[in-house]
Specification:
The complex is a heterodimer of chains A (about 425) and B (about 650).
Chain A (H helix, E strand, L loop, with lengths): L1 H21 L42 E5 L10 E6 L4 E5 L2 E6 L2 E5 L10 E6 L6 E5 L2 E6 L2 E5 L11 E7 L2 E6 L2 E6 L4 E5 L11 E7 L2 E6 L3 E6 L5 E4 L21 E7 L2 E6 L2 E5 L4 E4 L1 H4 L6 E7 L2 E6 L2 E5 L3 E7 L5 E7 L5 E5 L8 E6 L3 E6 L2 E6 L28
Antiparallel strand pairs in A: 1-30, 2-3, 3-4, 4-5, 6-7, 7-8, 8-9, 10-11, 11-12, 12-13, 14-15, 15-16, 16-17, 18-19, 19-20, 20-21, 22-23, 23-24, 24-25, 25-26, 26-27, 28-29, 29-30
Chain B lengths: L2 H33 L11 H5 L18 E3 L5 E6 L4 E6 L4 E6 L5 E6 L5 E6 L4 E6 L5 E6 L4 E6 L5 E6 L4 E6 L7 E4 L2 E8 L5 E8 L10 E8 L5 E8 L1 E2 L5 E2 L5 E9 L14 E9 L5 E5 L10 E6 L5 E6 L4 E6 H9 L12 H4 E6 L4 E7 L2 E6 L4 E5 L5 E6 L7 H10 L11 H4 L9 E2 L11 E2 L21 H5 L1 H8 L6 H12 L20 H10 L15 H4 L10 E3 L11 E3 L21 H6 L15 H12 L2
Antiparallel strand pairs in B: 1-2, 2-3, 3-4, 5-6, 6-7, 7-8, 9-10, 10-11, 11-12, 13-14, 14-15, 15-16, 17-19, 18-19, 19-20, 20-21, 22-23, 23-24, 24-25, 26-27, 27-28, 28-29, 30-31, 32-33
Helix pairs in contact in B: 5-9, 10-13
Classes of the chains: A mainly beta (about 425), B alpha+beta (about 650).
């Protein structure tokens, strides 16, 4: 009995001694990453990229004259691959580097000046920082305040050196490459890649990227167009249903072809350029257009640019614009004049002549403005004007509005 | 024996064992602590002092103030003093020399700036990657703003509505509109941008960077001064300071036409035995023309008198005198700016080595206490942080200390003394440099050096970080120094300082402090692009740990990452040949470097030939000798690197 009493006393004593420790408030486990981030503020529902805009539909713009810049005017080469015209400067990509004109002075960057490669494939401007991104066949270059930072697959997370297209989307820069779509988060310096291992693409040859509200599209060489919902992370594939590489068996059944040479989005419409025509997607329905049935300048469409619901396209037989109903194409003739052909709703063509023409019918890049257009051609950089009479050097067109809303403030974490 | 007695006996035995064990453990703890302390030190040393976790937000109970940066209110009456270990900013009444308040920014403060109207204070918070804006009067934090990684220097624009923040970890400058009218932007700067200053006329903001951004290790280093438009934040000009690095302070001339930048001119490509004309690194001051970008470099090092670790500078109200701190020789130099301007006219490329030039404009030096770091003008006086003396000195325009505020009067413990030794250039011949000169923040300056002990022009090797170095023995790239004691003792004296070795007490303190250094934390935000591939780091971990190739063939132990880079340190402490022996190397066997914080340690490999982690494996002539990697795709390599960035 006494033993039990002593034991009881001992147990109670131990319990009393341990009570403060057992009842202590647990401290949160320290995270190796520091305090957990604050919960993000509530956000509005993701925008619908296919919503019909309130703005009026832009009609196909008609151009009355063209002027062409060549090496005689300061370009490093007549083989112009891309163009980026802004309010204060003109940036021109060629096969001999990139040239920037401010006022009347040109600054050219080539490999000797630190450019990743002389053959430039694409250009993009970061509106937040003013940095210029240059895609080349050997990586990409970031031009920031005169400083050139080179990214290629051997010194960074860029998945492949052959960069077909560069797109800036807020703090993220997209690179469409031969081995996938690399993404650089400039706030953290982290790289990631979308390819056949972690997306719906069945082969990773990416030719172009387009960004819209809540959506990202990647044009694939041999995989149609894939679409990612940025809110859900889900992918969707748009393939040519008939699977024919040479024919479009059923019109309007999907993308006109598997091989996408470019994609562009604006105002609720996604455009797919292929070497066999043009496709249009409004979120529900695909439509296909060819030179034969619509009056495009050619089926070999190398580049598309969208402004409102009108698309401008560069082909190997001139350039044109199309608003879904009216197609206007411009073709340079041997005598230096320009034949303007208009088709309305696929009907009979009407033609007109202009005394001036783009530098070449091989058009690799198109940048439309409100009343002018810049064309990267095989023979110079052409500038098309809606007015017939020449004026004092026309002001450069305002920059296109960004395709996606401005990103929130950058967070380095 | 009755049961009761047995219980009592058991309790008694337990008590004896417990009590005895406590006594034994306590005795061991004291003896262990004494290994890293000196006679006269307090008997009780907190275990956390040396073995604390590396979580940056932890505040040691006995953290000393260690005043680092400061700013002064426009009326000169209040000084705001950053005390990083205590995670607070002190508000000091300059006239009364009294601490009248504090700001708690909720993390480790880096730098501080006062708004032009004196009403607000901006404090960068290094470990939470933010800048906070607080009331200058009461110290209460009002707003928090995200910045880039590891923000340090900060400045208000002329209106007080915008902040410019130097993000040391992400190599860019944040331009923040405090009212949120425009989104924050980040503009690329140099490598490790550190300090920011606004011109008196408000038209220009200058950002200086610490590290060289020259990728070629066979070329002289250079650092960037980034000049931004004070109104728009657009980069107007990038200026290269040739052969310079460790620019940690900046100030404009009174007429806003020039930017003055104290810096180190590094001569790392020259064998370290060339002691004359400034030796391996000389203190210089760069004068940059804001309009043209022209640079004049002039020495602060004088004949037979080094100027180690140039730190803060401030100008008198009329701009005719600049007070420049030397963090290594514990002095303030008085520079006649008119004479400096005159000397610029004849400055040529070799001006930094013509030490007699300094005699034309350095009017004298005045002594300060240990490791002065920052200086700001308060009316006709100057306020200086004496960092490792835990004091704030008030100087007159001649640099003479007229008053001093002691923030901590307790005698320094062994670890503090070790840190003082680390920063003291008097250990080196003529005070040219301190340990800190090559290891700022106990990290690395990222340069290669040629120690002639290995042969002139031979074994030119990369400087290595000291963070987290404890437990990673041996040392030197060839692994011939078994302990830090040996590394910092006779070897240091023979190869580097060319002076007497440290005395035993100093060496012991220094070694103890080095052992206490935690590894650098991984860079936050690295490894994830929002919405893309969160599993990259996991995949990379599997690649790091793999024992078979992708085709199923086994990888021999010599080809596995974990064989040499055993976690948690990422090293086994042995040497290995990974096929990187170069034409200047005597051996191809190198000490396996530890991987903790590897993302912060660029460049890589013993001779710094790899400027990024990718290049460790993508440069030519590496064929599965540095781990079996040739079966990996580029995407696999990206995953592996994402894992390494997280260490």
């Amino acid at each position: 009995m006494r033993t039990r009493r002593w034991l009881a006393i001992l147990v109670v004593s131990l319990a009393l001694a341990a009570a403060p420790w057992a009842l202590r408030r647990p401290t949160p486990a320290a995270s190796a990453d520091g305090p957990p981030p604050a919960a993000p503020p509530a956000t509005a529902p993701p925008p619908d990229p296919w919503a019909v805009p309130a703005t009026p539909v832009a009609s196909a713009t008609r151009y009355a004259r063209f002027e062409t810049l060549t090496t005689k005017d300061g370009l490093p080469s007549d083989h112009v691959t891309c163009v980026l015209a802004g309010p204060d400067e003109l940036v021109v990509g060629t096969d001999r580097g990139v040239a920037i004109r401010r006022g009347t002075a040109w600054t050219t960057y080539r490999e000797a000046q630190g450019l990743s490669h002389d053959v430039v494939t694409s250009l993009a401007r970061d509106p937040a920082t003013g940095d210029l991104w240059v895609g080349t066949v050997r990586g990409a270059t970031r031009v920031s305040g005169g400083k050139l930072l080179v990214y290629h697959q051997l010194n960074s997370g860029l998945i492949n050196d052959i960069v077909y297209h560069v797109v800036v989307d807020g703090p993220r820069v997209w690179f469409a490459t031969q081995s996938g779509a690399s993404v650089l988060d400039v706030t953290s310096g982290a790289w990631a890649v979308w390819d056949h291992r972690n997306s719906i693409m069945h082969e990773p040859w990416c030719y172009a990227v387009a960004v819209g509200p809540g959506r990202t599209w990647i044009g694939l060489w041999g995989g149609g167009v894939i679409e990612r919902d940025t809110a859900t992370g889900l992918w969707r594939e748009h393939r040519d249903p008939d699977g024919e590489m040479e024919l479009d068996l059923d019109r309007d059944d999907g993308p006109i072809h598997e091989v996408s040479s470019f994609v562009a989005y604006d105002d609720g419409v996604l455009w797919q350029a292929t070497y066999f025509g043009l496709s249009r997607f409004d979120g529900r329905r695909w439509r296909s257009y060819t030179a034969k049935n619509t009056g495009l300048p050619g089926d070999f469409v190398q580049h598309v640019a969208a402004r409102g619901r009108t698309v401008w396209m560069g082909t190997d037989q001139g350039f044109g614009c199309f608003d879904g109903t009216t197609a206007v194409s411009y073709r340079r003739e041997d005598d230096g004049t320009c034949t303007v052909t208009t088709h309305v709703d696929g009907g009979p063509a009407t033609t007109a002549k202009l005394p001036t023409a783009p530098g070449d019918n091989y058009v690799l890049w198109v940048q439309p403005g409100p009343d002018d257009v810049w064309l990267a051609t095989g023979h110079g950089l052409s500038h098309g004007f809606a007015t017939a009479s020449p004026t004092a050097p026309p002001a450069l067109p305002p920059a296109l509005p960004p395709a996606s809303p401005p990103a929130p403030a950058a967070d380095g974490r | 024996m009755s049961r009761r007695r047995r219980v009592l006996m058991a309790v008694a035995v337990a008590a004896v064992l417990l009590g005895g064990g406590t006594v034994v453990a306590r005795g061991w703890a004291h003896r262990h602590a004494r290994t890293f302390s000196a006679p006269g030190d307090p008997a009780d040393v907190s275990c956390a002092r040396c073995h604390g976790k590396d979580a940056p937000v932890k505040v040691a109970a006995n953290a000393r103030p260690t005043p680092f940066d400061l700013a002064v209110s426009p009326d000169g009456r209040r000084a705001f003093v950053v005390c990083p270990p205590q995670q607070r900013v002190l508000i000091v009444d300059v006239d009364d020399r009294e601490v009248v308040g504090e700001i708690r920014p909720g993390g480790t403060p880096g730098s501080v700036a006062v708004s032009p109207d004196g009403a607000r204070v901006a404090v960068t918070v290094v470990d939470t990657h933010e800048v906070v804006v607080a009331d200058a009067g009461g110290g209460s934090v009002r707003t928090r703003h995200a910045t880039g990684t590891e923000p340090h220097g900060v400045a208000f624009d002329a209106t007080g509505g915008r902040l410019f923040v130097a993000n040391t970890g992400s190599d860019d400058v944040s331009v923040l509109d405090l009212a949120g009218r425009v989104p924050a932007v980040r503009r690329p700067a140099g490598h490790e941008p550190y300090a920011v200053a606004r011109s008196p006329d408000g038209a220009t903001v200058a950002v200086v960077s610490r590290r060289s951004d020259v990728g070629n290790m066979d070329a002289p280093p250079a650092t960037e001064v980034t000049l931004l438009d004070g109104a728009t934040g657009v980069v107007r000009r990038r200026v290269r300071l040739p052969s310079c690095h460790m620019a940690e302070a900046v100030a404009f001339s009174a007429d806003s036409a020039r930017v003055l930048v104290p810096s180190i001119e590094a001569r790392n490509l020259v064998p370290i035995l060339q002691v004359d004309r400034g030796w391996v690194m000389a203190g210089v001051i760069a004068s940059v023309d804001v309009a043209t970008g022209a640079v004049a470099l002039l020495p602060l090092t004088e004949p037979m008198r080094g100027f180690a670790d140039p730190a803060g500078l401030a100008l008198t109200a009329d701009g005719r005198r600049a007070l420049v701190l030397s963090g290594g020789t514990d002095e303030v130099a008085l520079v006649d700016t008119d004479a400096l301007r005159a000397a610029e006219a004849e400055a040529a490329a070799d001006a930094p080595r013509r030490l007699t030039l300094a005699l034309r404009y350095v009017r004298g030096r005045a002594p300060l206490r240990s490791n002065p770091r920052a200086i700001a003008r308060a009316g006709d006086r100057f306020v200086v942080t004496e960092r490792l003396a835990d004091a704030i000195a008030i100087l007159d325009a001649d640099g003479k200390v007229v008053a001093r505020l002691e923030l901590d009067r307790s005698p320094p413990d062994a670890l503090r003394r070790g840190e003082q030794v680390f920063h003291d250039a008097r250990a080196a011949f003529q005070g040219h440099f301190a340990c800190r000169s090559c290891h700022p923040g106990a990290h690395t300056d990222g340069l290669t050096y040629d120690f002639e002990i290995d042969g002139v022009g031979r074994d030119v090797v990369l400087n290595r970080s000291l963070r987290g170095v404890s437990g990673t023995e041996p040392f030197k790239w060839v692994g011939t120094n078994a302990t830090i004691d040996r590394q910092c003792g006779p070897r240091f004296a023979m190869v580097l300082s060319r002076a007497d070795v440290f005395d035993d007490a100093s060496l012991k303190s220094l070694v103890g402090w080095l052992h206490s250094l935690p590894p650098p934390p991984p860079r936050p935000g690295a490894g994830r692009v929002e919405g893309v591939d969160a599993a990259a780091r996991e995949r990379g971990k599997k690649l790091f740990e793999r024992a078979v190739r992708k085709d199923g063939r086994p990888i021999p132990p010599s080809g596995r990452c974990t064989t040499c880079h055993m976690l948690p340190h990422g090293t086994t402490g042995q040497r290995a040949d990974v096929g990187t022996k170069g034409p200047r190397d005597g051996t191809g066997l190198f000490d396996i470097p530890h991987l903790t914080g590897v993302a912060t340690k660029a460049p890589y490999l013993h001779d710094a030939r790899a400027t990024t982690l990718e290049e460790i494996w993508t440069l030519p002539d590496v064929r599965d000798q540095h781990g079996v990697v040739t079966d990996l795709s580029k995407a696999d390599l990206n995953d592996l690197i994402e894992f390494l960035r997280g260490l």
